[in-house]
Structures are given as structure tokens and as C-alpha cells.
């Protein structure tokens, strides 16, 4: 097991009817920007519930955050922060809204006028406090310090991370997810699943506790996925998945392990260039990365075959291949395309994707930093 250090200051308030706790959790003198996505927060009453819980505090609402939060749209929210002297941000939504809140929290205190420099690696030294009311479980952003932002007009999608942008608290009410459209539910399932395996299906490090935790979360997601689709108002299933998705990326699964993240690195380009749902890009790229890195990942994939999918056998390679096949079948059973052709993309698009990887300097991806541009091209071509 590798050495590790773990820090996570986010307070989790889990359960039904917990939005009213905002009154005790948010400072009384807070001037709040409420950041949200589409009309669902309004349509289903969540925004009104939040407003009522905040009482007489000064609030300014800013909606329209896209599924992949767009830099130029967020700059409009930044103007609201300046105009109304906002000192607290509340994200009401899923990972995209929360990622947007993290960027705004950092940008509001970032001296340079070019806020995109935050996504290019410039250090942030201060951030506004912020919190979340989670309505779409998927990314784990409600309990971590990472954010992914798109700059659509430049064809870019980048991430940043800082301990200064952990949420102060996150309210996780599973009943808020029962109205999600099936597509968003499915995307959340795939997203959380891939977050887990990007940290788990790498190489053996002997991190037994972390491995078992990851395997249990994968089994839970596989078990509840059919219920989430067939019984969308099943709050028990929603709660199990919500907490699993949070734990998928709150830092626990990286302890003692070596992460991969090449699937995300390559998949981000599919979103940046073709606006394909983030989770669906992961479903396309993951099997290709695993096939390409089969030798290095064989032991862990065989372990996954046994401990997650319940398969048996002595041939490690065959078990590893079976784990890849079972995972792709799981995505397909959810109605998620796992080939570039499913999104009308071909060889010319692979060329453009690789060019974008070169543009952003993504030339040494994966746990061994050996997925260069040629390897990325080979992986993508294998997914046609």
C-alpha cells in the first residue's frame, strides 16, 4: 500500500427533509449567490424551498449552468458576485453546478483579470465559502475539491483542484433526485462507476481496505441501477446510489492506490469538441483503455471479475477480459452507447480528438504516464 495523506473538511447532511437545515448552516449575515442549472430546480420547488429556508438573508439567483459548465456563462455569475457584494455561494444542482460554484469561489478572489488561468494551473490563494444542495448524484463534487470547466468557443475542457474549494457543507436529500429524467440518472450511474474504477482498476498496491471499499461500491451501483430505472421514485435506491456516488470521488478510494484518469483525459475531448454527455464519453473510452493496458491492469481486472462480477476461474487473462466485457455490457444495458459510431463519429473525428489532446498537452496519461498521443489514437480507433 502506498503512503497517503487524507483531508476532507466537508460536512455531510444526509436524508429527507434536510434542506430546512440551511437556516442553521449558512451564516446569518451571508449575502448569497444561489447557482443552479435548468428549470427543474424551479419546476419541482427546490429553489423555493431553498429560498424559504434562507429566510431574510440577501440572495441573488443565477441559473442556466450547463451540463458541462461553460466558462463564459460563469463570467456572468462573477459579475453578479461583484455587483451584489456576495460573500457566500450556494450551489443547487448536480456536479456541473457545483463545479461552477467552485470556479466562481476561486475566481472571485483571483486577482488576474483572466480567470481562465485558474484552469491553466495558476495557484489560488483564497476563495469564497460555498456549500451545496445536491439534486443530481453523479460526480462526487459535493465532497471533493476538484472542478471541471469547459471553454466551448475554444474547444477546451480543463480541471483544477485546491483545498480552498471544498464545500463547507453539502445537503444530500435523496428525495430530490426522484424527478430526474432517465438520461440524467443513467449518466450519473456511469459517471460514478467510472470514477471508482479509474482509482481501482490500475495496478496492485496491496491497499486491501481501499480495494474492498471500491468493490463494495461497484456492487451496490450494479445492484441498484435497474431499480433506479424501473422505480425512479424509490427513495431507498436513490439514497443508496447518492451516497455511493459521493464516496466514489471524495478521496477515500485513492488512499494507498495509484490512479489512472486517462479515461477522463481522453473523454473530455469528446465533450469539448462534440458536446457528448460526459458520462457517455467515459463509456466509450474505458473499454479501450483497459484493452490497451491489459497487461498492466490484468491482475486488478481479474480481481474485479471475481469480487464484483462473481466470476470464477484460474486464467487471469480470461478473467480480465471478462471484466471488460461485463462492464461494457452493463453500460449497454443502461442504453448507453459504447462506440464512437454510436455518436456518428469516425476516423476523421479521431484525428481531431488527438489534435485536441496535443493542444492541451495531454501527452502522458494513465497510471504509468505511458499513454501518449499515438496510444490515445490507438485507443480511440479501437472504439470505432
Task: Please tell me about this protein's structure.
- One of its GO terms (molecular function) is metal ion binding.
- The longest helix is centred in the middle third of the chain and has 23 residues.
- The protein is of the alpha/beta class.
- Strand 6 and strand 7 form a beta hairpin.
- The chain has two domains: 166 residues, 3-Layer(aba) Sandwich (Rossmann fold); 201 residues, Dehydroquinate synthase-like, alpha domain.
- The relative contact order is 0.11.
- The strands form two sheets. It has a six-stranded parallel sheet with strand order 1-8-5-4-2-3, with helices on both faces. Strands 6-7 form a two-stranded antiparallel sheet.
Q: How is the topology of this model organized?
A:
Blueprint (H helix, E strand, L loop, with lengths): L10 E4 L7 H4 L5 E6 L3 H4 L2 H9 L3 E5 L8 H13 L4 E7 H13 L22 E7 L9 E6 L4 E6 L7 E4 L9 H19 L7 H23 L4 H14 L13 H13 L3 H15 L1 H14 L8 H18 L13 H13 L13 H9 L3
Parallel strand pairs: 1-8, 2-3, 2-4, 4-5, 5-8
Antiparallel strand pairs: 6-7
Helix pairs in contact: 4-5, 6-7, 6-8, 6-10, 7-8, 9-10, 9-13, 10-12, 10-14, 11-12, 13-14
Amino acid at each position: 500500500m502506498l503512503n497517503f495523506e487524507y483531508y476532507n473538511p466537508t460536512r455531510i447532511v444526509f436524508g429527507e427533509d434536510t434542506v430546512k437545515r440551511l437556516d442553521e448552516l449558512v451564516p446569518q449575515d451571508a449575502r448569497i449567490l444561489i447557482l443552479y442549472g435548468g428549470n427543474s430546480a424551479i419546476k419541482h420547488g427546490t429553489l423555493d424551498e431553498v429560498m424559504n429556508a434562507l429566510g431574510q438573508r440577501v440572495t441573488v439567483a443565477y441559473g442556466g449552468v450547463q451540463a458541462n459548465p461553460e466558462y463564459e456563462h460563469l463570467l456572468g455569475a462573477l459579475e453578479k458576485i461583484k455587483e451584489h457584494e456576495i460573500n457566500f455561494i450556494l450551489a443547487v444542482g448536480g456536479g456541473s453546478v457545483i463545479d461552477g460554484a467552485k470556479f466562481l469561489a476561486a475566481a472571485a478572489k483571483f486577482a488576474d483579470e483572466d480567470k481562465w488561468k485558474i484552469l491553466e494551473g495558476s495557484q489560488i490563494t483564497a476563495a469564497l465559502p460555498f456549500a451545496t444542495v445536491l439534486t443530481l448524484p453523479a460526480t462526487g463534487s459535493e465532497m471533493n475539491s476538484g472542478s471541471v470547466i469547459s471553454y466551448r468557443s475554444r474547444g477546451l475542457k480543463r480541471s483544477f483542484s485546491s483545498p480552498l474549494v471544498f464545500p463547507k457543507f453539502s445537503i444530500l436529500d435523496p428525495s430530490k433526485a426522484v424527478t430526474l429524467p432517465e438520461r440524467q440518472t443513467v449518466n450519473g450511474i456511469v459517471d460514478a462507476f467510472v470514477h471508482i474504477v479509474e482509482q481501482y482498476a490500475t495496478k496492485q498496491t496491496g491497499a486491501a481496505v481501499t480495494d474492498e471499499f471500491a468493490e463494495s461500491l461497484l456492487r451496490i451501483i450494479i445492484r441498484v441501477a435497474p431499480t433506479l430505472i424501473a422505480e425512479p421514485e424509490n427513495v431507498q435506491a436513490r439514497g443508496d446510489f447518492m451516497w455511493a456516488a459521493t464516496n466514489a470521488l471524495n478521496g477515500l478510494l485513492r488512499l494507498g492506490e495509484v490512479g489512472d484518469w486517462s479515461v477522463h483525459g481522453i473523454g473530455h475531448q469528446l465533450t469539448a469538441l462534440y458536446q457528448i454527455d460526459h458520462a457517455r464519453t467515459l463509456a466509450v473510452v474505458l473499454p479501450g483503455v483497459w484493452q490497451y493496458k491489459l497487461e498492466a491492469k490484468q491482475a486488478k481486472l481479474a480481481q474485479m471479475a471475481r469480487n464484483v462480477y462473481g466470476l470464477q476461474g484460474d486464467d487471469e487473462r480470461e478473467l480480465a477480459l471478462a471484466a471488460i466485457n461485463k462492464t461494457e455490457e452493463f453500460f449497454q444495458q443502461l442504453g448507453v452507447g459504447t462506440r464512437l459510431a454510436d455518436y456518428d463519429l469516425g476516423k476523421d473525428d479521431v484525428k481531431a480528438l488527438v489534435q485536441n489532446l496535443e493542444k492541451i498537452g495531454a501527452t502522458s496519461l494513465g497510471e504509468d504516464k505511458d499513454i501518449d498521443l499515438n496510444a490515445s489514437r490507438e485507443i480511440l480507433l479501437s472504439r470505432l
